[in-house]
Amino acid sequence: MRFWCEYAWLPDGPAAGVAITVDGSRIVSVEPGVPREGTVLAGLTLPGFANAHSHAFHRALRGRTHADGGTFWTWRERMYAVAERLDPDSYLRLARAVYAEMVLAGFTSVGEFHYVHHAAEGKPYADPNAMGYALAQAAAEAGIRLTLLDTCYLTPGLEGGELSRAQRRFSDGDAQRWASRVDDFRPEGLARVGAAVHSVRAVPAEQIPVVKSWAAGRPLHAHLSEQRAENEACLRVHGRTPSELLADLGVLGDGFVGVHATHLTDKDVALLGGSGACFCPTTERDLGDGIGPARQLADAGVMLSLGTDSHAVVDPFAELLALEADERLAAESRGHFTPTELVAAAARHEAIGWPEVGRIAEGAGADLVVVDTESVRTAGSEPLGVPLCATAADVRDVMVAGEWVVREGRHLRIDRPAAELAAVIEELL
Amino acid sequence: MRFWCEYAWLPDGPAAGVAITVDGSRIVSVEPGVPREGTVLAGLTLPGFANAHSHAFHRALRGRTHADGGTFWTWRERMYAVAERLDPDSYLRLARAVYAEMVLAGFTSVGEFHYVHHAAEGKPYADPNAMGYALAQAAAEAGIRLTLLDTCYLTPGLEGGELSRAQRRFSDGDAQRWASRVDDFRPEGLARVGAAVHSVRAVPAEQIPVVKSWAAGRPLHAHLSEQRAENEACLRVHGRTPSELLADLGVLGDGFVGVHATHLTDKDVALLGGSGACFCPTTERDLGDGIGPARQLADAGVMLSLGTDSHAVVDPFAELLALEADERLAAESRGHFTPTELVAAAARHEAIGWPEVGRIAEGAGADLVVVDTESVRTAGSEPLGVPLCATAADVRDVMVAGEWVVREGRHLRIDRPAAELAAVIEELL
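YS: structure for the whole thing
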């Protein structure tokens, strides 16, 4: 397949008149400055975006928690109530529709931070990975690359106590049993497996190295300092911040991604150099987390990625704009990340173990997103500015691994994703 | 005309099965809980939104100032360069397309904070209100209610100096001459005239009462403490904050709207009780202004409204979500404004002199916005949460003063607003 793009976003930024040749699931040539020819992709063609942090089932809460006030912690009670009702069948149906929404928005991969492993009271399903397979099937049907970040979740907090009813579904008992379950999880197709430590709250320090050692070369994610309360408890119990604790446990560095990384000390930022950090700005706004030090982290050598997390919003453009905008609010100045840095962060498939995807370049995975540059939102912008004006509603076509999954704003494999969302959410709530 | 709405947003929040009868430009009856009948408006019908702070020509900069870094003040240089190129003909064409974009997004009125009055070097046009009439014509063609907030702009800053080349186009020389020009401005149709003091930077303290006294019962707006530098200069020159200065000049109170109100002291907040404040959250993010004390102002009895200001984003849902979200970021907790308060702020036509508009209620102006509740963005939300999930792309139908201007997402009077935007911006830049 060969396409001529009016504009294409190359690793250095937008270029005009770019011919892209795709063979199978790979881009085999990229030629900028070519006269118009053959099959034209009007508008701006970007690399597919990576949704590096997802809890698919949180989508059920969108538009249902705004009247209540409260905090992150009271919101979590609502979220647990949904988690309690999921089973492999309903989770397949919910995640399939959520992943379809993601592809329609321009995401071509998703890192699913998955911890709802077991049935009520923590009883394993007949196949203990039944929930993971439901997610893998959902992703396959929706046409999105999946990294199942299988999440170890053992304790309710740093200071002991009993797992709540909902949390008992998350626990494998200990990290060894977590590892042996995950060893048996072998999804097919465009799916990979990574690991996650839910947080320093949910895995005892002495068991964290078991997860790290299982991960070995695979992505290893952890929620990190999203809330001040986590930092305070970690200091009380371990005399160290969560980043310090993870550093001391040998967890940081290549392959590690700290999710949120909101409330960090300067020392934490330095320790995270060489690791990744996944910001989820629209969720961090929704949950009142605060504004993390994104620019400071990038300057310290942290690889930034983006995720839609709770799916209050599913829109890669909203996340990349918010990364920059919230830095502007905190700093009271403009232009902290270049548009090229923002697009690169939003296309950081490497953070979830797809290092070959996320660039329009020879040899890269053929994941493309075509954005309408003639909508009321994008009209008048220069190509460099389009990612900061566009929204998910401007995504026209999406190719994943060499196959069109979205054309003219319609998902080719799932007829009515919004109706599927409404139906399964109605059933779960 | 009689419509049956699946859901309609009444002054207390959403209700199911609402019959609305419109006679001419007014709503004459609203009956909730009625069985489905007649002409059905599926989804959620909201009151039309008020864009209480607009500089139409700033739309030309969307997607063109992100590579430069800098501050509010360097951005302003770029903005002045566009201002210098406008004339009544190009401003008509630009504003017509910008206002069409607004109506498509669900705005049914706009408060145009208008200060580009004169030709190069401040020479008046043959009709000194030619630019104002261009804006009035643009609004009429786009089908949006206009309040032209004619803006007095006389000085480059609090500490003296010469007006720049661009700024000379803004000045009438003194406030008396400003008032006599505005006296002659009599737009027709759905247009009203209000007044603005650009800021305490741009109008000498002793001339501000002239503008206040001209306004007499009409809206009077002023940029207020958007930047710390303004506060600092005002303290140096007047020994008072901008809010204190305006209070001492007798400007605050009914009819007054402070725009931005970002960097306020507790005393400023108290002084503003009984006035209005217009937040422009997406612009305040874009320009790195900071997060203003919206909840504190509301609690002090300030009437909040919303505007898209620089039009980096034109989406009433983005503004109302951002008002709440940025408060969450600052406070690190959730739920500062109820959805009903947020919709009321976004529909505050009263802030720009249309007190009869902005409610779905008997006797109110017939401005309605029908939102798709079956998009991937809104599906699954409860009606109360829809305004926090929807985007401008979910707006299906818009009625202004009893006439449909947008149907099925298409502007009925302007065929290709995005193409018009692109063409005139290309010409201006």
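YS: worth flagging: Chain A has a mean pLDDT of 97.
IM: good catch. Also Chain A touches chain B through 67 residues (CB under 8 Å).
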